[in-house]
Amino acid sequence: MAVPAGPRAVYVALFRVFTGALITLLHFTSAAPGRVGSSAQSLLQPYDLLYYSGVRSYFGSEWANAAEQLEKAVITKESLSTVRRLCHGECAAAGTDAFHQLDAAGGSLWDLWAVHWVQRKAECLRFCIGRSVTPAAQLPVSTDIEYEFNTRNAYNFLQVVYYKLEKLQKAASAAHTYFVANPSHLEMRNNIEKYRRMEGVTEEAFQDRELENERHWVLYDSAVQSEASSDWVQASEKWKACVNKTLWQTDECRVQCEVTPRRLPEDRGVESNDALSLSLLSCRQSCVTQVATRPGRLSSQEDFLPTQLEHLHIAQFKAGDLSGAVQTLRSLLLFYPSDKDSLDNLQLYYETLGGDAESPGTQPAQEIVAYISRALEEKRLLYFGVENLDFSFTDPDLWTPEDVVPESLRNDWRAEKEKINDKLKEGEQMEEVDESGFFSGGPVLQTGVTITMDDQLMNGTNRVVLDGVMTEKECDSILQLAKAAASAGDGYRGRRSPHTPHETFEGLTVLRAVQLAQDGMVNQSDARLLHKLGERVRELLHSYFRSPPDLFTSFTHLVCRSAIAGDQEGRLDLSHPVHVDNCLLEPETNQCWREPPAFIHRDLSAILYLNDDFDGGELFFTNRDAKTITARVKPSCGRLVGFSSGPVNPHGVTAVTSGRRCALALWFTKEKMYRDMEREEAELMWAADGKSVAKKDGEEPEGGAPPARNARSQAPTERSRGRGRVTGGKDEL
């Protein structure tokens, strides 16, 4: 393509192309309504107007209209994105004739043909979008509306609206969808537990309505699970699907950057137009971060796509797909061409292939080649803007080569990379530091309880195994309670475990046990014993770990997991993968990120075992690499394991291969606001001499009117830098 000579002239010309695209498109989408015709009612309306209408109806207690308008807002926003995506594809070839003229043009004529090409594309988009969307709906929405939809606050309102309309299945679905993106929202979590206990609410209700935009994360987690089971063929297929879906999701985000209208700057000068063009490029680059951020997470997983490629080539090699492994590894080397481990692996693959390493099937994937080429072109333009136009740009990638960065910016760029590397090294060095405020070795005050293993025997910090915490009779009573009530307990209903397809899972909370006792379904004394055991454990660990004065029970869960008969042969997975209770463990970097969806308020963890008549199911502790096992604990009646909930104590559970393993899992917190309110509700029910003071199936979810506080008021104050996959954060051990 013929362009004006000189690097700066090239970049300025390219800026004009991008500026022309934005100015022309924004001009058309911001134009006066004009002739819409009689079919205006069938066109998409402004979703921000629908949302505001729904919120007004909500506060006016007009529940039916609120539900209608809020649902229309959600559907219209998604439909608008679909229209824009389809029109972008339809108009991709628009102005091709003008584009081809650029090859022969020079000087100012090149600029004229460039503007003509851009104008043709913009006209096509305007016409295409106008067929389905009203002029008002094509205008930019406010940042407040963007925030409301990014935090899924529409579902916050909808869960209350549907509850008021007695549509409990829809209320539960809205509550679950909101909670996925706001996992630290305690009120919504309590609401979900209440919905689980309500008659007529089935497990199908607890599905994420926004799941279609998160398919790459579903595939990611599924691929990790296949790896844990050493099913390399399945892992290879799932990692490949995950890579493809991640690329598609990134392209979808980039399309929305290009076709979503933006507000024009007040000053229409050249510099402000350049800034608008750069903001488009920056938006496209930021798609890397958006796609790599899980719902409910504050930060993205760094090197998201390269990490998938690394997993994929290893899975392909172990599955016997050598050509595929070479192709994937060569694709990975486009990101990190001098990585020693990758180069060594490539040499190994070449030797295994026996010299057939240059066939077309082993070349880097064209999708990755295009991805890298496009990203580098945009980065060069953006760094040019940083250097010459005082533009601010944060590079989302760690793999960006140094020669893309202008010489004048490289010192600052290197310093930033060194900070990241220092932080990673610091995480490795912090392995043995426990900042929980607990100090093991205090007295054990209960008669008959003995210390079986301490920190030294367990090769760790703030760990203990106590025996004699329960009698055989007490174990039998709680096992009987679990047998009678756990399948109808807190919503799990004996479904397959969330961690493995080879086990089923049952759970029971103290409050649910009390409610079942009042309905005559279980023994009242057994329900009281379940509550009493929690207090016994709290007092023992409060003394042994020399806890600060206030230590509150945060959650208590009677959990049974059973091996599925005939489904255990060759099993290599875990009953519960290695995790940390109050942070997100990233074994690759030895980091543990204390942010949602981890239960960051948990300070002390405990497991009280009830039986040993099963195979497997041992608790084990590891280093932060999630591989190096430092201690094992075999369950038995009355055995208590206590440990601080932070990153010094990663732990998991080996597979239960036969029988049924039951234990009481407990967590404790130093913060009163995170105490277990359900335990207090159970205590109130007992205090009322058996007359329940709690609402049952008709109880109103918290935040009934107005709704549960929105994500602004629930956002944690600590905004740590999040990385890595989620390997923990479940309500059981």
TrEMBL record:
Keyword NAD in record: no
Family according to the record: Belongs to the leprecan family.
Keyword Iron belongs to the record: yes
Segments for region (Disordered): 688-733
Keywords from the named record: Dioxygenase, Endoplasmic reticulum, Glycoprotein, Iron, Metal-binding, Oxidoreductase, Repeat, Signal, TPR repeat, Vitamin C
Protein's name in the database: procollagen-proline 3-dioxygenase
Biological source species: Gasterosteus aculeatus aculeatus (three-spined stickleback)
Domain of life the protein comes from: Eukaryota
PROSITE patterns noted in UniProt: FE2OG_OXY
Cofactors required: L-ascorbate; Fe cation
InterPro entries: Leprecan_dom, Oxoglu/Fe-dep_dioxygenase_dom, P3H, Pro_4_hyd_alph, Pro_4_hyd_alph_FE2OG_OXY, TPR-like_helical_dom_sf
EC identifiers of the protein: 1.14.11.7
Example GO biological process: collagen metabolic process
Molecular function terms, GO-annotated: iron ion binding; L-ascorbic acid binding; procollagen-proline 3-dioxygenase activity
Domain Fe2OG dioxygenase: 556-670
Gene3D superfamilies (alphabetical): q2cbj1_9rhob like domain (2.60.120.620), Tetratricopeptide repeat domain (1.25.40.10)
Residues making up the signal peptide according to the UniProt record: none
